[in-house]
Amino acid sequence: MGARGPRQKLPKLARLEGNPGKRAELPDFGIEAAGEVFVPDHLHEDAQICIEVIKLSMPPGVYAKIDSYLLAAFATAWALHKQAAHAISAPEFEHVVVNRRTGSEQPNAWIKILNSQAEKLASLGDRLGLDPRARAGLKLPAERPVSKFSGLLGQPGSSASSRH
User: Fold this and answer.
1) How far separated are the first and last CA of the chain, in Å rounded?
2) Which tens digit of pLDDT belongs to each residue from 99-129?
3) Are 153 and 161 in contact (CB under 8 A)?
4) The pTM is what?
5) 142, HSE (Cβ side, Cα atoms, 13 Å)
6) Counting Cβ atoms within 10 Å, is residue 15 exposed (0-12), middle (13-18) or buried (19+)?
7) How many degrees, rounded to 5, is the angle at CA 30 between CA 27 and CA 34?
């Protein structure tokens, strides 16, 4: 059985949110993975595009190389979901089919595939921080405006030191 309570946010997302309650410094979240996300060559073209879209949609450094495998699972689920959605939207699609062995009617297998992949997308998307709730509080750190007093003591980057 899993841990109780809401799942912790991804460390990078928590840091980007900042410290709105002015609490003590945010805790260190442990080991930080390194490297850039890669797109596996063996994935279907739709899945590869899905990973590229995710990479471009999230702030830099949110995902690391090790996250490529979970992103590949998410992207594959999305590609299968897309394929099922196309099959279901075809004009000749039959929602109920006859089982050849038993002769009984049953829902078309594409409907089961569509629903199964939607569940996987929701579960993996939550783990990857891809749902709207995870992004709602996401704020990028704002750049501080330069103070009119900066450089009075000859600090680097000051306007006083660049005049001479």
Assistant:
1) 67
2) 989 999 999 999 999 999 999 999 999 888 8
3) no
4) 0.66
5) 4
6) middle
7) 125
